[in-house]
Specification:
There is one protein chain. This protein is mainly α. Helix content is about 70%, strand content about 0%.
Amino acid sequence: MADDKAKRGGADRALIALTEKYEVAYWSKKFKVTPAKLKYAVKKVGHSAKKVEAYIKLQKHRAADKSRIALSEAYEVRYWSKKFKITPAKLKAAVAAAGHSSKKVEAYLAAQKAAKKAKKKTTAKKAATRKKAA
């Protein structure tokens, strides 16, 4: 039984009782998640505290990985290349220059694009002045 107050053994400590507010508060604080996320995790994997903890750790890990570019995974290279509309080789060069953070890579690519535009403008102005001089 998940919350028999007469029993205080290991079996009771290893289970999460969603019907008790104090248990929801305790486990939410322990796992550093909201009560809603705790309830969702319990419904997903069961009342076992170990299983819920493993599930929550996995979810946190996945959330952290979403903002990082892993060049060792081919599907990640395809995904980020398509997202940034560049070739895989350019993506690898951008990651080497800016780091694995997708935000930093995006900022790096935007800065490169702006620099390229500015260079085109200056070469166009030089060409126009050359035509006038000739």
